[in-house]
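Can anyone check this?
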Amino acid sequence: MTAIHEIPCDQCLRARLMGIDTHEEAIVFMREDCAICRAEGFTANTRLQVKSTDRSLIATLHTVSAGVLPSGVIGFSDSAWEFLNLSPGDEVEVRHAPLVHSLSALRRKIDGYELSEHEINGIIGDISRRLYSDIEIAAFLTTCATGGVTRRETRALTDAMVKSGNRLQWPEYPRVFDKHCIGGLPGNRTTPIVISIASAAGLLIPKTSSHAITSPAGTADTMSVLTRVDLSLRALKRVVNETGACLAAGGRVGLSPTDDILIRIERALNLDSEGQLVASVLSKKVAAGSTHVLIDMPVGPTAKLRDQNQAQRLARLFSAVAEDLQLVLRCVITDGTQPVGYGIGPVEEARDVLTVLRNQAGAPADLADRAVLLASHLLAMASGESDAHCQEQARHLLTSGAANRQFERICAAQGGLREPTGARYQAVLQAGRSGVLAAVDNVRLAQLAKLAGAPSSPAAGLRLHVKVGEEVSQGQALATLFATTPGELAYAEEYYSRNHKLFYVGEPPE
């Protein structure tokens, strides 16, 4: 971006932070009687180019009444302020937005054409430079979801997203391992256990995870209950060099940051393009310096992947693009019919993780078994030994306490291990009839936990008391609902009372 050393007085305004969080969408606020607005013909929702002394972005204009801002002042949303690296009172230049040339490639994609690597680089590059509006990003994601993304386009998307951010390198290590779950299954908090087992076995596995997007907890949310996860790039490398692993949040490290922009729009649209999903996952693995990647793919009627055919199709695309990127990749299709463990929400999932690592009585066997299975696949990728041998090795590392000691080492290097604290308010959800618990709805259970306040309130969520296939009696506790305020608890309870199809007792769903 071109540095600007002198800003013409007739186009300059003084910057003010409005304290409005619009997430990644760049918004600016100008008085409706602003002289620049009148002279340039700017109206609400106009796309503007805003330049500071050394940075530039395109933002959407919101006009405000004269009492909101002083004359000669322009307001900024949090993300726009941070991107331009502004300080209060800085002078900025405001002009009409220039032509964004990659929009012609977007129109070609809408018309059904396959895009070249150059065209995709242009689109992703312009998105990363904040030149696209949310509507334009939505158009790109929608046409990728409905029109499809080819293998070559997926490879190009992955490469372009890697280029948009930082890239970790581990020159002293020939093999770097990683693990990812495609999501859609509440409580599936295997990552801290898997990373502890794998790194206890000597694998280098610098794991960065995201905070929750649509779920009641992501790995970063759960780990933030137990230790510090917001590590700088320098701190992350130190932790990995000390312990052989990390369990950090990826946001501050800046790996494939454009993907975070795309995910925000996907979430709003409830879109989940297979090509975009593959590019999203693999771009962050490549950016993390990984050479060997394990993908956990839960399949179930209310999981993200609904059937085996869908899972196999996605696995083939993952494998094909990984081959193009020279990644060693293994996809493992797992059971996604019900939540894993007993806890849903950051604190409750952290409790499950600790009980499994500490081999405590009452630890959820399904979480331990799944973590051992996934860890064994990483060990097999590293050693070439049989899956059965590696599963026995992974189980020993867990039951002997070696994995727990390694987990404690990682947490100590990241800032220390904390014990989780529970929520103040709770309510018991009872069975309305007797019978066998035939099924649960993962989507509605996740929604219930979110309505209780998870993940923004870490202690909010659910603790399940019954698993599918177990007998229940009328009035028996199916789950306990947790919230940090009485209002959130009441809100979640109301949702449960209106949606009885969370637990199917006596008969499976149609």
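Reply from J.R.: I decoded it. The first strand starts at residue 12 and ends at 17.
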